[in-house]
Write a structure and sequence with these properties.
The chain is α+β, with helices and mostly antiparallel strands.
Length: 897
């Protein structure tokens, strides 16, 4: 029963009188400072080995007892309560023939619960053992029949592969792994802190020897979350017992994690719950982060892989989320108090007034602003459903706070009704020493693994960068401290640390499947050190896509071509660039020449020092020449910028290409514009067009007589500057056709250089007869962009007040899958921005996926399954998309990052 105040840990004198354990010494070792990791007795206390014996049958193990002297730590001995032979053919058995052993380890303290253990002994033993760690607050028996966590889907459980496997319940029994009441008892807390692991290991190994008559040749430890902490804690305290360890998403800075839980709860619930965020607001944060950071790795795949570059956008993201005036005005923004909650979740705790075990002064924050999810379909954890938590907190409250509340009540204060919201993690006052004491019991932060490495031990760690329960940044801190302690060379030789973007705590948008056990065995037994692995996504909606499993600090960057779902198209890189920097900006003030979807000819002046822009109308049917629009561009990362043009985004692409928008002359919204820093000019006499003359496909939009109408066809630009459009008479496939000089549905004309406007005037002539460069009617202009020397012609149509638009050209040559791969910023004549990704025959436009067919219906045209159907042209990183003929909002322009 808990006292009204904090209880002293005062059972040592009573327990000392009970004797047992540790090779005969008395005393009470339940609350040690982390023992010395020097490979001596401090690492592995001597054990009285059992006498040599012949192998026992399964049934003979039942009722077997082990004396306290056979277990390294204080107990009252162990008993096998059952030993059952399980046949391969028994119902529900997928593990082959094995002996299922269950037993208990008796506590020293009569008020402490038993340790329940499970041991499975296969008939076809491979002479190896696996110890499985626990989870959460434990209290549930780990029976050793589980599969490898995050392992290949088709791989059998280790027991079925011949391993003797074992686990325990950490010395208490509970119906929930978030029930912390057990920690009110000293021995139970010490067992949870790691002592039950050593006790169970000693008992299990003795029973393995009894069953088989020989010791295992190799012993491994596998754990996840609390089990990952268990794995690390074990080799830090008893480094000689295991040959190899896998620690997935380890809760190694256990006390720091719980203190973070409390800090988050205080941010959410103090001040009347002003900082609490409902699901709608939480999802808003997550969407904003994804929009800002998804493409920083080169792929719009729903995974934030370039986490550290994304972190540099924290300030901009938070500013964009702020409600006007900082007060809560609804689900479309965050108040100042709610922004403080986001910062609390995101930021590390820095302990300045006291230290945790092993001198730790920091607990890592969660990557909420870099892709971690605390709401929505990809996580089972959230921030609760109410502003005022219960005492004790329940499942209706924030998941993080529930465990922090239990920890404060039972691990630290031992006051059942304690108000955890009054507990300051950075200044625990009278409880500071107790926090450090508990930290020494439960944390796995000793960085001196030299004794483990000295006997050949190997360690594999894996942590998801989007973990919403255990901070990956604490694991990163530990890894860095490990390097500082034993040296980079030793770590390179004995440790592999993999970080996985998009992976939460067994949740997230990417859950890796890979054979960590095979990697560990190959390393320990064959000397083959793991390198970059390939992880298969286990998330239902994206199952089967792959990514390289990169070693920290590397992350998977898309190479720019090929399927987004194939690991081979990614490289593990360590670069961390400034996401607000844009290598495609001009070096000095520059003017781009182009036009918009209304057929207006434009000049766009950009000052890269201030990001001021000025759009000047050079020729238009709707506005007076010389009309200007000015403003300042604000970086959103990835060379994309917001503007003052009715929501138009500006994007700077390689080769001096600018995609943007300008306030539409009519109808509201913005008109998409495309402009070029370098253009083809022909001021010399005689005029020569040979460098840009060619046969092209064309896509565009025709406006002025109601809704926008798609335009598609073929066009030839000749050496003399004459041109001829051809469209399929039947209007098939959007009117694309192979160019034919004798086509019947045709337009003809010529272009001449206008040095005043730095563009070509375009005149149309009679559709019949030969080509001519005289006479005709001025019906628009042409800007021929030069992108890395390649011609990208753009026809700005200004025929009349009821006929105007834009046409983009791309050569009528075969285009192969992969040539246009990449991520694109798109702008439509609807006045909307979107993102698109082309990867081989795969296409994603604003979240809608489609399949691409190349050279259909003619060479150089790509048909998409999005519409009825829709078609694309690609030219030197510029994309033109038209929906089915006659469809409203017929044209989108795009540029490749």
């Amino acid at each position: 029963m808990l006292r009204a105040g904090a209880t002293a840990l005062g059972l040592s004198l009573i327990l000392a009188a009970c004797g047992g354990g540790g090779g005969g010494g008395g005393g009470f070792p339940f609350l040690p400072v982390n023992p010395p990791a020097n490979g001596g007795d401090g690492g592995n206390p001597p054990v009285n080995p059992p006498p040599a014996q012949t192998a026992k049958a399964c049934a003979e193990l039942a009722g077997m007892t082990l004396a306290a002297s056979q277990i390294s730590l204080p107990t009252q001995g162990a008993t096998v309560t059952s030993a059952t032979a399980v046949a391969a053919g028994d119902a529900g058995n997928n593990y082959g023939d094995y002996c299922r052993v269950r037993g208990t380890i008796q506590p020293v303290d009569p008020n402490s619960q038993l340790i329940n253990f499970a041991l499975n002994l296969p008939e076809k033993w491979n002479q190896k053992t696996i110890h499985f760690g626990g989870g959460g607050f434990d209290g549930v028996l780990i029976d050793g029949t589980e599969v490898i966590r995050f392992g290949p889907r088709e791989k059998p459980a280790p027991l079925a592969l011949g391993y003797a496997t074992y686990g325990d319940d950490s010395g208490h029994q509970a119906s929930s792994i978030t029930d912390g009441r057990f920690a009110a008892n000293d021995e139970q807390l010490a067992n949870y802190g790691g002592q039950s692991l050593k006790k169970t290991r000693d008992v299990a190994q003795a029973l393995v020897l009894a069953r088989y008559g020989s010791k295992p040749k190799k012993a491994y430890f596998l754990g996840t979350s609390t089990g990952g902490r268990d794995a690390l804690s074990y080799i830090q305290r008893w480094p000689l017992d295991y040959d190899g360890v896998i620690a997935n998403e380890p809760a190694l800075n256990y006390t720091g994690t719980r203190l973070s839980n409390v800090a988050v709860g205080r941010a959410l619930y103090n001040n009347g719950g002003a900082g609490w965020m409902n699901v709608a607001k939480t999802l808003l944060v997550q969407r904003t982060v994804l929009q800002a950071c998804d493409k920083l790795d080169g792929a719009a795949d729903g995974i934030v892989s370039n986490v550290e570059s994304c972190r540099q956008l924290n300030t901009q993201i938070l500013a964009s989320l702020r409600c006007t005036g900082g007060t809560d005005t609804g689900d479309g923004c965050l108040s100042d108090a709610q922004l403080d909650t986001v910062r609390t979740i995101e930021s590390p705790l820095e302990f300045t007034s006291y230290a945790l075990g092993n001198g730790v002064k920091r607990a890592g924050g969660y990557n909420l602003l870099e892709g971690a999810l605390v709401a929505g379909p990809y996580t089972t954890r959230d921030l609760g459903t109410r502003k005022v938590p219960a005492n004790p907190a329940t499942s209706a409250d924030a998941n993080m706070y529930v465990t922090g509340d239990q920890w404060v009540k039972y691990f630290v204060t031992r006051i059942e009704g304690f108000d955890t919201l009054t507990f300051d993690p950075l200044n625990p006052g009278a409880y500071a020493a107790r926090v450090t004491e508990v930290s020494n019991l439960t944390d796995a932060t000793n960085p001196d693994l030299a004794p483990f490495f000295a006997h050949g031990g190997k360690l594999i760690m894996l942590h998801g960068l989007a973990d919403e329960v255990i901070s990956p940044n604490s694991t990163i801190d530990y890894y860095k401290q490990l390097i500082a302690t034993v040296g980079q060379a030793s770590v390179d030789q004995n440790v592999r640390f993999y970080t996985v973007p998009g992976m939460g705590h067994g949740t997230g948008v990417f859950i890796p499947n890979w054979d960590s056990l095979a990697a560990l065995e190959g390393w320990v037994e064959g000397g083959l050190a793991p390198a970059t692995g390939v992880a298969v996504d286990a998330v239902a909606g994206t199952y089967g896509r792959t990514r390289p499993l990169c070693q920290f600090p590397a992350w998977p960057k898309y190479r720019g071509s090929g399927s987004l779902d194939a690991a081979v198209n990614y490289s593990c890189v360590t670069e961390v660039g400034d996401p607000l920097a844009c290598p495609n900006l001009p070096a000095a003030v520059a003017t781009y020449k182009g036009g918009d979807s209304f057929g207006e000819e434009l000049s766009v002046k950009i000052d890269p020092a201030t990001m001021a822009y000025t759009v000047t109308v050079d020729a238009s049917l709707q506005r007076t020449a010389g009309t200007t629009r000015s403003g300042t561009l604000v970086s959103q990362g990835q060379c994309s910028y917001t503007s003052g043009e009715s929501g138009a985004a500006f994007a700077f692409a390689p080769g001096g290409v600018l995609l943007g928008g300008v306030n539409a002359p009519s109808g509201g919204g913005f008109a998409p514009l495309l402009a070029f820093q370098n253009t083809f000019e022909n001021s010399a006499s005689p005029a020569v067009f040979n460098p840009v003359a060619n046969i092209f496909n064309t896509v565009g939009v025709q406006q002025g007589s109601g809704s926008a109408v798609a335009y598609a066809g073929a066009v030839r630009l000749r050496n003399a500057g004459t041109f001829q459009y051809c469209r399929s008479a039947a209007g098939n496939a959007g009117s694309f056709m192979v160019y034919d000089a004798n086509c019947t549905e045709t337009e003809k004309g010529y272009i001449t250089w206008n040095g005043t406007r730095n563009a070509f005037d375009l005149r149309t002539t009679a559709p019949t007869g030969g080509a001519t460069t005289t006479g005709g009617t001025l019906t628009g202009s042409m800007v021929i962009g030069l992108v890395n020397g390649a011609a990208v012609p753009m026809h700005l149509v200004r025929e009349s007040a009821t006929s105007f638009g834009l046409r983009l050209h791309a050569t009528q040559l075969s285009l192969t899958a992969g040539a246009a791969d990449g991520s694109y910023v798109m702008a439509s004549v609807k006045g909307e921005n979107a993102a698109a990704t082309v990867a081989g025959t795969g296409f994603n436009l604003a979240g809608t996926t489609a399949t691409l067919s190349y050279d259909k219906p003619v060479p150089g045209v790509v048909e998409s399954s999005l519409g009825a159907p829709d078609h694309f042209l690609f030219n030197s990183g510029v994309l033109g998309f038209v929906s089915g003929a006659g469809t409203s909002a017929a044209l989108q322009l795009g540029v490749r990052h």
